[in-house]
Amino acid sequence: MELAYLVQRLAEQATPEPRTGRLRLPTEREQVASLAVSRGALREQLSTLEMLGFVDRTQGRGSYLQVPDAGFMQLYFDLSHQLGHLTQPQFAAARELLEVAVAEAAARLASADDVDALRAIVDDMVRAGGQGDVQGALDADVAFHRRLVRVVDNPVFNLLHDGLSHVLHRELVERRAAAGDSREIDTVHHGIVDAIGERDGDGARIAMRRHFEVFAAITGT
Q: Environment class of residue 97 by beta-carbon count within 10 Å: exposed (0-12), middle (13-18) or buried (19+)?
């Protein structure tokens, strides 16, 4: 039985708990009977789903179907990178496509408070960079892009961003190290915030692309 089909069948059989709303699964015996599989085969596949985060099983409390966090995506991307299936340039290209789309959407969706928060983060980034606080500038850079994704609040973008976060963090560390003491890698973020504040989707998209062009020009990547 394929995992996708098993998840579909489990979703059909799960019942929301009145108090928590969690999707409680039938007992293992009931699952074996309804799915017409052996207990051993069922347990093996449930273990796989549990490892991926789709099933939560606790002795004495039962089993629950759930949406996993980004941990399984992080594992997939990390292993794919280590095995050479995905390269750093491919991750970088995917990140740029994602960030450009997010910036354009943020220009439509950001509230005034969101714009103020983004501007404050960029101010922190520029200040930290100017003071030679490499870690502070890096932290602000990461926070800026995370905040953009949260402004858009699309579950697909959230999952992709969180799944790629550790790979992208490594890329940011390497790029900032290559950039040295250039402050343009920080100040270029102002253009993104300005476009978002003006509700200019095209401008936000162009400003985000400019952000990547500046990094590439300074670091030679």
A: exposed
Side-by-side strand order, sheet with 15-16? 15-16, 23-24, 62-65, 55-58
- Report the residue count for the chain: 221
Q: How many domains does the chain have?
A: 2
Residues 193 and 92 placed together within one structural domain of the fold: yes
pTM for this prediction: 0.77
Decide which of 44, 65, 86 is a domain's last residue: 65
- Distance CA(63)–CA(110), nearest Å, equals 39
pLDDT, one tens digit per residue, over 39-86 is 999 999 999 999 888 899 887 788 999 988 888 788 888 888 889 998
Q: Which two tokens stand for residue 18?
A: 């009145």
Please give the sequence-ordered ranges of beta strands (E in DSSP) within 83-173, or none if there are none.
Answer: none
